[in-house]
Design the sequence.
């Protein structure tokens, strides 16, 4: 299974924010779209960072007056990205080991989506459930024949 | 407020499912099982018979998995379920017709086309998509006029997914083995006379990345008339694959590479055919003669590199080779096609959707009352059972939307009106009882020959059989 399988059923919306926008605006976006991370893009639309709820929580503990700070000050700049034909299993291992939960996906340099560890877990579970179901059917077929 | 919400005996929720493959049946089942909700389901398929790829995709020598149709049969027996075969969305009915008769529409049309390799020579005579070969040997009525020239001694199958394995295995089976299956008579005759001696499966990555599953790989070693040949150098794991496996041990992958290594070290017993599994090669070009017929394939050797997600992807080296073959099947994946009037996401070749809710292409908001599931929702991957949780995700959205009154409000939501419309557009449509009748006849014809069934493969044959059966 590839990353594309997940993107296929995620519509086309990718929520982004500019680096100079405030963390208040970022929080509003996260809440509005019920998402755990937002991509940070410059004026040309190029990916320059990612901001997750965890980043904001960490900052809030350090600094109670964080709301007006620009996104750029706490976003993760060295973003690991995926491509649509990357393997889901490999991505899951990398995200687990490197401890990040949101993976922006680029195709020929253009942002085409974001997948979360939760999305991957669901896809893997569905695949697994499907395989079990199919095995059961085969066993029943064997017994019937 | 809930007075006029459909879902009661007096005012049932009317749902149409387009496509009678596994996804359509799983969705129907999940809707019909809802407690306290009365749902009426009409299911259409463009072919006369139900079951989609279970009938026209799953290999004829894999009968056990076809037992899944027993469960579909039960679903179809529900008093509020109707099936209409030979009814195509876009030909006999439009989306507007559906909107006028149903509260909710579920598109489950699968992937009706194939992905291309994008290399020169792909369309030469003797170079075919596996999708067509598969539909042909399974007796799909739309593919019975195709011809495959099996006079070639060497055949290449590009890709190492389970479909590629199916194609290679069917090409390698002996007539005695095929005679026990429900392969179409026409394909049986052609394969019986086949001159094929060597079948090459071509994987662009290494053994640890091969898409086929272990039971399918094991089965190749049990063929009566073909030896499996693997080059030991090509199945020795490269350092990157070894490191990846060490970091995240995975039993299935280890088992797969062990099996391949066992093939590589095995003795060739001299069976009439060989089935060669190659790794780390990509086709560069299909080469033809002056008559435009395939004569060879130019391949480049690949090496693997690691992407940031840890995926091992292929990269071409300078090393090029020529593999003489007279026939090429590309088995690099299926591809969904747009339905007229239904938003499509070209990038992934699926209906534009979010969790199965069809989206309006402009507003990107859900298109009220329209849903999708299965291969046309997520792309062409996964076994039959995978479509069950996939359909469930969509059905959950349908029920949520129903609770919010976000459904279509058809002016003519009656079962009789819908039936009259379909029959006026396609007088030759088939019912589920017609299918039961055909099914009995096919099994009967098979019994006489010691086969699971002998399929009717052409529309006139099907209609003729029904007329005869009803007499
Ligand atoms: C060659 C092959 C072999 C396979 N073998 C196995 C196997 O051994 N075991 C396993 O578990 N899985 C197997 N699979 C996978 C399995 O078949 C799929 O997961 C499953 O069939 C997908 O279900 P679906 O309902 O989404 O699509 P489909 O099964 O493709 O059903 C779609 C249906 O929609 C109909 N349709 C399309 N367009 C229209 C239209 N415009 N109007 C009306 N109807 C329309 C089609 O005629 C078709 O009947 C195989 C797949 C392939 C391709
Ligand atoms: N017996 C069964 O259970 C059974 C039988 C048939 C099908 N199915 C299921 O049906 C689904 C579809 O099967 P499938 O075989 O069509 O798809 P698949 O599993 O996705 O395999 C596609 C194969 O084509 C290769 N490929 C793609 N593009 C290529 C290119 N340009 N050049 C060379 N190789 C290329 C892929 O390699 P990469 O991995 O490198 O991309 C992969 O090996 C699968 O989920 C499968 O398991 C199951």
Sequence:
């Amino acid at each position: 299974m590839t990353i594309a399988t997940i993107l296929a059923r995620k519509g086309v919306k990718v929520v982004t924010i500019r680096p100079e926008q405030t963390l208040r605006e970022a929080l509003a976006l996260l809440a509005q779209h019920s998402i755990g991370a937002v991509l940070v893009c410059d004026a040309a639309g190029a990916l320059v960072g990612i901001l997750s709820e965890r980043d904001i929580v960490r900052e809030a503990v350090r600094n109670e007056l964080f709301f007006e700070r620009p996104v750029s000050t706490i976003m993760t700049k060295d973003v690991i990205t995926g491509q649509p034909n990357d393997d889901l299993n490999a991505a899951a291992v990398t995200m687990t080991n490197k401890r990040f939960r949101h993976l922006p996906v680029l195709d020929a340099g253009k942002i085409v989506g974001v997948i979360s560890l939760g999305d991957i877990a669901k896809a893997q579970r569905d695949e697994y459930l499907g395989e079990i179901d199919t095995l059961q059917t085969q066993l029943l077929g064997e017994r019937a024949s | 407020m809930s007075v006029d919400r459909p879902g009661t005996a007096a005012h049932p929720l009317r749902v149409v499912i387009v496509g009678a493959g596994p996804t359509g049946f799983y969705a129907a089942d999940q809707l019909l099982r809802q407690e306290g909700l009365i749902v009426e389901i009409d299911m259409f398929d463009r072919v006369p018979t139900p079951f989609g790829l279970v009938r026209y995709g799953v290999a004829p020598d894999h009968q056990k998995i076809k037992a899944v149709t027993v469960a579909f049969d039960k679903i179809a027996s529900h008093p509020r379920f109707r099936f209409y075969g030979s009814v195509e969305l876009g030909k006999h009915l439009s989306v507007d017709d559906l909107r006028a008769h149903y509260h909710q529409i579920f598109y489950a049309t699968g992937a009706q086309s194939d992905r291309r390799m994008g290399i020169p020579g792909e369309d030469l005579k003797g170079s075919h998509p596996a999708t067509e070969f598969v539909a042909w040997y399974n007796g799909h009525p739309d593919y019975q006029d195709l011809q495959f020239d099996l006079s070639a001694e060497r055949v290449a199958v590009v890709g190492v997914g389970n479909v590629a394995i199916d194609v290679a295995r069917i090409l390698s089976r002996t007539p005695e083995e095929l005679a026990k299956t429900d392969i179409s008579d026409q394909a049986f005759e052609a394969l019986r006379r086949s001159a094929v001696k060597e079948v090459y499966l071509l994987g662009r990555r290494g053994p640890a990345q091969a898409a086929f599953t272990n039971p399918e790989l094991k089965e190749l070693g049990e063929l009566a008339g073909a030896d499996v040949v693997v080059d030991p150098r090509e199945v020795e794991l490269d350092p990157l694959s070894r490191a990846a496996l060490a970091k995240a041990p995975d039993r299935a992958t280890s088992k797969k590479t062990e099996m391949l290594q066992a093939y590589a070290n095995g003795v060739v017993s001299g069976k009439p055919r060989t089935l060669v599994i190659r790794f780390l090669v990509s086709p560069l070009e299909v080469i033809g003669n002056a008559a435009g017929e395939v004569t060879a394939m130019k391949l480049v050797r690949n090496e693997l590199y690691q992407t940031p997600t840890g995926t091992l992807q292929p990269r071409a080296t300078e090393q090029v080779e020529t593999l003489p073959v007279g026939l090429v099947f590309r088995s690099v994946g299926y591809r969904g096609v747009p339905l007229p009037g239904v938003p499509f996401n070209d990038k992934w070749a699926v209906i534009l959707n979010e969790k199965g809710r069809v989206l309006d292409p402009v507003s990107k908001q859900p298109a009220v009352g329209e849903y999708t599931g299965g291969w046309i929702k997520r792309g062409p991957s996964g076994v039959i059972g995978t479509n069950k949780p996939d359909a469930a995700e969509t059905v959950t959205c349908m029920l949520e939307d129903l609770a919010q009154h976000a459904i279509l409000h058809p002016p003519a939501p009656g079962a009789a009106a819908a039936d009259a419309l379909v029959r006026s557009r396609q007088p030759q449509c088939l019912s589920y009882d017609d299918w039961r009748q055909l099914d009995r006849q096919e099994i009967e014809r098979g019994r006489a020959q010691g086969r699971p069934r002998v399929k009717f493969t052409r529309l006139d044959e099907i209609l003729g059989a029904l007329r005869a059966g009803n007499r």
